[in-house]
Design brief:
Blueprint: H1 3-13, H2 20-28, E1 46-53, E2 56-57, H3 64-74, E3 78-84, H4 88-97, H5 102-110, E4 116-120, E5 123-133, E6 146-155, E7 159-165, H6 172-179, H7 182-185, H8 189-222, H9 232-249, H10 253-261, H11 269-335, H12 350-371
Parallel strand pairs: 3-7
Antiparallel strand pairs: 1-2, 1-3, 4-5, 5-6, 6-7
């Protein structure tokens, strides 16, 4: 049966009937596998739907409803349903089929959620913030450095539903990697949850390494010979982008610790040890972000100190030249008063002598200021 037929049958199970719209979309245009990074983000919100038994991908047969019923009846295997930015209408039938809590279903559709892990009966709902480093030729005061998205994961006894928001964070390569490790995938839906968490945290570390290169470049520019002329807007931009990265990384610490330490019915006990490893990697990412924030503060303070020193040097130069110019200004001002009875006013050598005295005084002041580093 086609994907449109699958969705129509899911719609028939619920009172809302929201997936009729997806069925119409599927009839008008072919389904696009968004799990592959090279595919175009066009088509219905359904990316993929696969059944796994004993860690092996089962051949596709029947529609989504029949597949779910068959898995539940046999008590073996699970269904992995992938979605990309579904609407309320598109997600309503799926929420009804898998008995998802309305609050969790609403969060999955609306997005812009804080990283968290919540329990709704027999279902675990996790939210991960995905991050992506935005390549740029040169860092400016308006450069976008970090782009964020979201992955919501519903984990039940016999299903995994992933809802992705954003232009990146594709799970296609992750799915292929998991399918190559049947022993790990055979541990059930919690193995998929761990793989997604590990994938997201690894992306954090990769982005942090890339951001470090930008910070190193800014640091080099600030401490260069003309560091006082560096653009402080780049430092502020990096701090803003680092704050965005921090909002994605730091809130995930507590949920991962809960998954690693607290028993959860839908999480295999063997998988909890793997969550501890992911939590350690996340701690490393959190510490690096905190260190970057402190380093950027230090770089900004150093830049401001350089600006202050440069301004002081400019003021000293201006003051020194003002002192040199004050000598001829004073002498010329005195002899410009036009009194008849003034010393040496009618002397034949008076003018050359005054000019000589002014020149010698200015030269002595100039040499003194140069010796003291003012000029």
């Amino acid at each position: 049966m086609t994907m449109a037929g699958n969705l129509r049958k899911v719609t028939g199970l619920g009172r809302v009937g929201g997936l009729r719209r997806v069925a119409r979309l599927a009839r008008r245009r072919p389904r696009v596998d968004l799990s592959h990074p090279a595919r175009s983000p066009l088509g219905s919100s359904v990316v993929n739907c696969v059944t796994y038994r004993e860690g092996v991908r089962a051949p596709h047969g029947g529609d989504l409803v029949d597949t779910v019923q068959r898995v539940r009846k046999s008590g073996h295997g699970f269904v992995w349903l992938g979605l990309h930015e579904p609407t309320n209408y598109e997600f309503a039938g799926i929420a009804e089929l898998f008995d998802l809590h309305p609050l969790a279903a609403e969060d999955a559709v609306e997005a812009h959620q804080r990283p968290k892990v919540e329990r709704y009966g027999e279902t675990l709902f996790a939210v991960f913030k995905t991050v992506c480093y935005v390549e740029h030729e040169e860092l400016t005061a308006t450069s976008e450095v970090v782009d964020t998205g979201e992955i919501m994961v519903f984990v039940g006894r016999d299903f995994v539903i992933t809802v992705r928001h954003g232009r990146h964070g594709s799970l296609g390569p992750l799915r292929e990697e998991l399918e190559s490790d049947a022993a790990q995938l055979a541990k059930g839906p919690s193995a998929v949850l761990h793989a997604i968490a590990d994938h997201v945290v690894d992306d954090y570390l990769n982005v942090i390494d890339a951001v470090q290169m930008d910070i190193d470049q800014v640091e080099t520019d600030v401490f260069a010979a003309n560091g006082a002329r560096a653009d402080p807007g780049r430092i502020y931009q990096l701090k803003r982008e680092l704050l965005q990265l921090k909002r994605a990384v730091v809130p995930l610490s507590r949920p991962l610790l809960d998954l690693a330490d607290r028993p959860v019915r839908v999480v295999d006990p063997e998988i909890q040890a793997y969550f501890r490893d992911v939590s350690d990697h996340l701690l490393r990412a959190t510490e690096q972000i905190a260190a970057f924030d402190e380093l950027l503060n230090s770089i900004l303070q150093a830049h401001l100190a350089q600006v202050t020193v440069a301004q002081n040097e400019d003021m000293r130069k201006i003051t020194a030249w003002a002192a040199v110019i004050a000598v001829p200004t004073m002498v010329c001002g005195v002899y410009g008063m036009n009194f008849d009875d003034m010393p040496e006013l009618h002397w034949r050598f008076g003018y050359p002598v005054v000019i000589g005295v002014i020149s010698v005084a200015c030269w002595v002041l100039y040499r003194g200021f140069r010796r003291n580093g003012w000029l």
